[in-house]
């Protein structure tokens, strides 16, 4: 029975077939034609997948070819434009200088007054009420329609207890409650799975903020103690704001970007 | 047995391929078409099914991997250790653990997303959730793709491990590199191990099988071991150490007394003493190889001393078993694999020692009774001192002697062949023993084709006999033909005879026709005896007619018939007892009431053909009484009524005279809206 490295052993003892290398070469040469036949005949999803793969391969091929074609010959290089350089027809004008230099803190104060903050998603699509809530009929003859069920992702907090079902106007189903978010640090470019502390502001309205609904653009507060951030004063930072960047009800998870 | 055959593990696909396989399977095996307008529950179900299906497939594939790879704790410790040496137990367990966690993660993902899908209220939302679920599952698999690649490599290597049975009779060969272990195993078994002049040619265990006393022995060739401290040993040496440690085998320690392996006897002895702890309780034989280069007696004194030390150690293993001290030679043997001198002796010694040891152990174990029949041949106890040799008849003895003599005397064809130059040179003359009329014809060449015919078609040993027989038959047949060869010529008959002939023929054809008609309906018709003659065929008038046609006087016959007929009797009685009533009827063997009624009409008119009322039951009908017959007739009429209305000829008439009658198909709207234009 063949044991150990029997293939190599056979090759050592008997060598290759007399036409082995010829056949190998020819088979490899035929691969090109085979591949093109597959590319032309493959239909449906297989065809699409193959086309995508092939496109990526071709792009890579082209890049390497270009790299090889880069020659070592010298080329003319444009001189960089110096700062403050001015075209000839403007040479006679006098430049005015600003007297006041606006400092960073003043700019911040102005922004605060305006109430605008820099967030990754400044504008968000408004969510209508009938998209946010689903009407639940109740009552003996199912005619009362004052209950609403939230259809988006929500956060309720650890000590949450429902109101008695008879008086509950807004139902937040437990299947749509989330505790953790995938928070990306914009500078480190890495993502952490952090716990949510609370919902700070939902751009669609204060009612949604109070309900804890998280849609795209909501500002949430997350527990960053595992990042190990420290203030200049020496205190440990354990909560930071993040903005939700996806539609959680469509993806089943909350992706957010940390606001630094 | 899983424990020593790892060839049955399925191929482990790498991460990307696994993802492709599962996703394309999901795409093919689940329904693909869904529209926005479907009911929401149907949409949800459609996407939930896909998520579940993908999860199940991943689960299946990953479970298959986990189940098929052997658990190092469940297999024989020899294989457990060997796999640890080759692949590192921790790494192996980690890889399988990762596959297991991936499986659990995928289950959790599927569960969560199926829960979320229940809240999906639009096609887009359900679809996005499904995409997210499948994407997350595939990410999990992508993360474990290095483990999968590692497992695939391990699987390939494991499949090529030799299948060693740890429990059967085994002979283990060990020693320094290049001492001749692989050459030895090549000589005694059919294992084709590579033999090269450089050290560490054998890099793993090889197994071969050999037979001794009708039993099969495994012979295991190990890579050479160097004399190093245990911790410094590399993987290849560890393979042999593992084999030595775990297999209960007879050990052949090979010694190269010529030193051509590059190591002196002193070094080899040092190795022996360092691993002698592994030889505990195992039959050990020290084999001195390469005696063609350097005979055992010719080595130096110190080397001889070392060899004797080794022999003493080996003797201890014999002594420890309580075996006979007489087997001194079986402990230290010499041989040369190049000249094949002493190879078989070594093998026999090793096999014998191993067998004895195993038998002893079996004797001491509790399972002795199962094996006892294999060791012990029961001999009947002699009841007295009388000799009872086997009794062979004298004739048999003589025949045996004669046969022996004949065997010597007779010269066989094979002997002839060998004398005249062997198989390729001498060709036996097959025509030597032909029996022919003339011996000179033996060597003649037979023709095959003559005058365009195959000679073989005409050859027959009894051809003359056959010819005689044929001629006789021919003569007989000719005589017969002459006998019944007389024809009827029309001229020989005269007019009367012609007439008579015509008559006879006509009658015959009539009879035949009648018979045919009767035969064709015979299956459905019951055979009634003549006394129930419905159609009154067999009357005396008929008889009279037939007799006159023959030319005889019928009157006598008719009278006789009439005198004996029953109806006549009845009729007579009828006339007299008409007035009396029923009382008289009981004694008579008269026909039934029905027949009486008939015979009454009989007296009135005889020659007219009678028609009976439909409810009258005649004996051949098969009805119990007239009520039944009436009912039957009614049913028959009812079944025919519908067909008659449809103007059908019978049950099988399905003719549609015109398939699309014009008066029904013209002048209407084609969609059936109105029936008029």
From TrEMBL, chain A:
Kindly state which keywords UniProt assigns to this record, in alphabetical order: Nucleus, Ribonucleoprotein, Ribosome biogenesis, rRNA processing
Q: Chief localization class?
A: nucleus
Compartments in which it is found: Nucleus, Nucleolus
A GO BP entry is: ribosomal large subunit biogenesis
The record's Gene Ontology cellular component field reads:
nucleolus; preribosome
Q: Name one Pfam family in it.
A: Ribosomal_S8e
Q: Which CDD domains match?
A: NSA2 (cd11381)
Q: Which Gene3D superfamilies does UniProt cross-reference here?
A: 2.40.10.310
Tell me the superkingdom of the source. Answer: Eukaryota
Q: What does this protein do?
A: Involved in the biogenesis of the 60S ribosomal subunit. May play a part in the quality control of pre-60S particles.
Q: How does it assemble?
A: Component of the pre-66S ribosomal particle.
The entry assigns this protein to a family as follows: Belongs to the eukaryotic ribosomal protein eS8 family. Ribosome biogenesis protein NSA2 subfamily.
Its protein name is Ribosome biogenesis protein NSA2 homolog
Q: What organism is listed for this UniProt entry?
A: Trapa incisa
TrEMBL record, chain B:
| Coiled coil (UniProt feature) | 476-514
Give a yes or no for keyword Zinc-finger in this entry: no
**Main location per UniProt?**
nucleus
Q: What GO molecular function annotations does the UniProt record carry, in alphabetical order?
A: GTP binding
* Database matches in InterPro entries: G_OBG, GTP-bd, NOG1, NOG1_N, NOG1_Rossman_fold_dom, NOG_C, P-loop_NTPase
Task: Report the residue ranges that make up the OBG-type G domain in this protein.
Answer: 169-355
Q: What keywords would UniProt list here?
A: Coiled coil, GTP-binding, Nucleotide-binding, Nucleus, Ribosome biogenesis
Q: Where in the sequence does UniProt note compositional bias of the Basic and acidic residues kind? A: 402-417, 530-544
Q: Localized where? A: Nucleus, Nucleolus
Which terms under GO biological process does the entry name?
ribosome biogenesis
Q: Which GO terms describe its cellular component?
A: nucleolus
Q: Where is this region: Disordered?
A: 402-421, 514-677
Any keyword Protein biosynthesis?
no
UniProt-listed Pfam families: NOG1, NOG1_N, NOGCT
Q: Which CDD domains match?
A: NOG (cd01897)
Q: Compositional bias of type Basic residues: which residue ranges?
A: 561-574, 631-646, 660-677
What family is reported? Belongs to the TRAFAC class OBG-HflX-like GTPase superfamily. OBG GTPase family. NOG subfamily.
Q: What does this protein do?
A: Involved in the biogenesis of the 60S ribosomal subunit.
* Protein name (database record): Nucleolar GTP-binding protein 1
Organism, as annotated: Trapa incisa
Question: Lineage, please?
Answer: Eukaryota, Viridiplantae, Streptophyta, Embryophyta, Tracheophyta
